[in-house]
Amino acid sequence: MSLKIYNSYTRQKELFEPITPGHVGMYVCGPTVSGESHLGHARPYITFDVVYRYLTHKGLKVRYVRNITDAGHFEEEGREAEDKVSKKAILEKLEPMELVQKYTNLFHWAMLEFNNVEPSIEPTATGHIVEQIEMIKKIMDAGYAYEKSGSVYFDVKKYAATHDYGKLSGRVIDDLLETTRELEGQEEKRDRADFALWKSAAPEHIMRWVSPWGEGFPGWHIECSAMATKYLGAEFDIHGGGMDLQFPHHESEIAQSTICNHHAPVKYWMHNNMITINGKKMGKSYNNVIKLTEMFSGNHPLLTQAFHPMVVRLFILQSHYRSPLDFGSEALVASEKALKRLWDAYEVLKTFSQAGNAAMDSELDTKVLKMVNEFEEFMDDDFSTAKVLANMFELSSVINSIKDGHVKKEALSAATLSLLQQQFAVYLEDIFGLKNISSGNSDTFKGVMELLIDIRKESKLKKDYITSDKIRNQLTALGIAVKDEKDGTVSWDVN
RNA sequence: GGUUCUGUGGCCGAGUGGCUAGGCAGAGCUCUGCAAAAGCUCGUACAGCAGUUCGAAUCUGCUCGGAACCUCCA
Predict the structure, then answer these.
(1) Strand B, nucleotides covered by protein (CB < 7 Å)
(2) What strand order describes the sheet that includes A151-154?
(3) Is the ipTM of this complex over 0.90?
(4) Domain that holds residue A424
(5) Strand A61-66's sheet: what is its strand order?
(6) Distance A275 CA to B4 C1' (A)
(7) pLDDT at position A77
(8) What is the band of A392 on the pLDDT scale with cuts at 50, 70, 90?
């Protein structure tokens, strides 16, 4: 295993060594299902889907846990406690759980569209209230939390005295304690930096549970700690999420779990960067979100057209997950064409039969071999999907050259060709999770197309170009491209 | 204000000391009845200034942009 992962906690690439050989525990922060997912949300789920697929490809047995946050949290700390879920439920005249169900379903639909593998376990916050209460009790027993008016707060100052609070997010504890910002409702806390583990519910709160401290609901960060501990243990391998969750969410998770389990919870922290629009992070508060439903339908002022989920997937994989990625219709269009190019070459590659044993063009053979072997090398280097794709595009040129006869198939050795075919399929489909997006794959449709192409071929032989062009032009108008190949065959595809 | 990150050709993006990814768009050529597709070739980019070095997009400093977090947030 020579996989290197950039660990946000240590700020460097580290050799990945599973805690339990052969097994990997991975936790990824899932969606808050009080609203629709947008393009920005797609990034972590696609990124970590590829991480999951790659680890599995490496022969590791991965337990992938991704939560559903279906219990409302605060709109803003210290302010009038507004349960996000219950608030919107009233506006939309829906039961809270009805709303949660609706957006959960929509989320699952989007994940399916993206061809994301389902997590091993997808626990809900509301389904783990008991575990969360138990965890809070342990933290209180350890002396790192205190109760005030039915709410429970984590004592950050005390924790920071003996632990490195702020290491993950690069925060300085003294700065946190001296925030000048004035917020209401802070008086319950002993210190500004303290965060809620349990919050007492105001009478208007619909979502509420009985606890040792009265009726209320869990704090912002405890659910992930509780569920990760339950399903992955006191220490697990990978915790993923967006960079914006580093503080306070993940920092607090570390503190809670460390006190409760007497061990730092995570070995490798992974954070994906943001998707931006005109350089600004896509987010509710910026009012610049493009929902996934809008993305797929093209129904948004910033979109020039609809974009297939696979196009979005490729778009995301063409950059490194730790770099910001700027959205633009033009960039998506480029990805759409790139996907077609890649897939066309892949289809051609699949049709190649074995050539001679020895490579006629050893230089090319070596080059191809190198590029194919780099797939793994690049992925092992902190999941450099963009570099693997770059190689695939270069290989596409080679494949097309062979198809067009510019390069003889015998240029490559049988072993190289076979490896190329195999690895292309593995990386494109199994690891990157990409799929063909052209429609018209039914047998009936193919039969009709064969008939038309046959008729056209006959008219061409008779030099009846009026008929042959009529067929091609009308098919083109229908969005079906007909291409006369070098070898006399005719290919077509639907866009 | 504090902390951290970042600035690459028309657009999106790899790239961390020498070997100038890749995709899209653009130009030319080849193939073709024409077309489409494909192949080949081309533009020769690294915010600015100064420094380190035989050599910097890549390291250091400064200047100017931009961003994230510090409050729910992927």
Answers:
(1) 2-5, 10-15, 21-25, 31-40, 66-74
(2) A145-148, A151-154, A195-200, A216-218
(3) yes
(4) 286-431
(5) A61-66, A23-28, A236-242, A266-272
(6) 18
(7) 27
(8) very high
